[in-house]
Design a protein that fits this description.
By secondary structure, this protein is α/β, with parallel strands linked by helices. Helices cover about 45% and strands about 20% of the residues.
Length: about 270
């Protein structure tokens, strides 16, 4: 089976799938992220950095919730140029810059809040990224990792032994990510010298209607992942038929924990 690098050049089709997935993910996770932004005092923060901002859909939520200056950084030029479009109407988004989270292009103690969403799971050295986030944060400021999943805690019913394991970590690993990043957050934050609070952001189980809407919106992405994992068209058709049937019957249940970490720099 082919291993895919997270930085491989995406085709136009893959890019479209990826953006659709991130956009929907940003909408669907807003109920988990927004209380965290409020809790860490984003409204009154003066300088906020979103690390691994991607196409800017999460950065947009941050910019809406604060009067402060928002800066985004991402390793991908493609993502930054999309983010510049997505955020062009937001006057408080001052800078969107290409840069590596392992060596952030900012001075020590620049930001009141330094945040990331779904970045650490894709980072080569997550400890180094959290250390960097702590470095650029002011004393008394906050480092926030708003959502980092742990697919080891994934619960899914009805079972499909062939497909479940692909979506419970294998696909993320093949793409170069760490599906078990959630459980490691405390270690990264404590070792970065931060006063740390860990929690699970998503306590609500989605309804079958929500799961179905999410699946249909991101269907191309899921089918591509199953093809990359080596499933035949027939196996994919059979799985999809059974999956949609369980959703229509209203019996499907899917859950995996999304951890967050709040670290105060003392
Ligand atoms: C799953 S996307 C999440 C984007 C955005 N935070 C969101 O939640 O919609 C991960 C993003 O992290 C970026 N990324 C991965 N490794 C990075 C690194 N070392 N430095 C900066 N950005 C990185 C990718 O280019 C991608 O845009």
């Amino acid at each position: 089976m082919k291993k895919i690098s997270p930085f491989h050049r995406r085709s136009a089709e893959e890019l479209d799938d990826f953006l659709k997935k991130l956009e929907l993910q940003a909408i669907e996770t807003a109920e988990e992220r927004i209380p965290l932004y409020i809790k860490v005092g984003i409204k009154d923060a003066e300088m906020i950095l979103d690390v691994g901002c991607g196409p800017g859909m999460v950065t947009r939520d941050i910019a809406t919730l604060t009067k402060g200056i928002v800066i985004g950084v991402d390793a991908s030029e493609e993502m930054i140029s999309i983010a510049r479009n997505v955020l062009s109407d937001y006057d408080n988004v001052e800078l969107l810059v290409v840069g590596d989270a392992h060596s952030l292009p900012f001075k020590d103690e620049t930001f009141d809040i330094t945040t990331c969403n779904l970045l650490l799971m894709w980072s080569k050295d997550p400890q180094k990224v959290v250390n960097e986030m702590a470095r650029v944060t002011k004393r008394g400021g906050i480092v926030l990792a708003s959502l980092e999943p742990d697919f080891g805690g994934k619960v899914h019913w009805p079972e499909n032994p062939k497909v479940d394991k692909i979506f419970a970590g294998e696909a993320i690993k093949r793409r170069g990510g760490d599906p078990y990043i959630g459980r490691k957050l405390r270690q990264f934050f404590v070792r970065a010298g931060l006063e740390t609070e860990i929690g699970i952001g998503n306590s609500r189980i989605w309804s079958c209607e929500e799961d179905k809407a999410y699946y249909l919106h991101s269907r191309d992405y899921y089918i591509r992942v199953l093809k990359e994992a080596g499933l035949s068209e027939e196996e994919i058709d059979q799985w999809e038929y059974e999956y949609l049937k369980s959703l229509d019957e209203g019996i499907e249940l899917n859950f995996f924990p999304q951890f967050y970490a709040i670290g105060r720099k003392v």
